[in-house]
């Protein structure tokens, strides 16, 4: 009997220890949710919790048309920690863009449902719906992240680019001519030689910049030669210009490199070129 009692007590001790350990263990889901709720309370926010665990808020409704899954949507994105550390911000004079139904992660789509163009939404993602325990190059392990998404009112990239160029010109006090291509140009020095046509090979000196002033390419004091048709579409604004001309052109992104980022050019970049037509061969 004493032996049985000893075994029973030992078993009870193990069960108590096991239950104690169970109570001390907290899942990442509950840890993250507690962090998010504390942040919401501290900042006096009103947010909706999705069944999957993320929180979202429609900050501003927007003034444009209602967004549907089939619509293209263009937006600026900022990703930060609950403590305010910034991990990503869409580059100045640029934007992200895709169909609403394709936006990833899906939490962004949920937050934007029922919003209008120009809306701003905030999404708080628990770590297990963001970068998880591995994090990434800039986001630490198990980090809760905040995403602020501000959509553009204008429905197409070319309209957004056109407004960016017009606003840039106004801010810099520049006067430019808009071509049928929707490329804006300023003739600094008219040429007097051979005119450029679609079959021309042009020899130029040039410098290319984004609207924030970053130089992404330049010929320096050297020249380069290329068939006009081998260059980006926006350079066709040179058609009809003559050898010796010096011009500045502003190329909307769809006539440059589009939404795809290049080595030193963010996606959806308007391109700003200074070009000297050194020679024209027809």
UniProtKB/TrEMBL annotation:
This is Peptidyl-prolyl cis-trans isomerase. It catalyses: [protein]-peptidylproline (omega=180) = [protein]-peptidylproline (omega=0). One of its GO terms (molecular function) is peptidyl-prolyl cis-trans isomerase activity. The keyword Isomerase applies. It comes from Pedobacter frigiditerrae. Residues 199-281 form the PPIase FKBP-type domain. Its EC number is 5.2.1.8. Pfam families: FKBP_C (PF00254). Belongs to the FKBP-type PPIase family. Keywords: Isomerase, Rotamase.
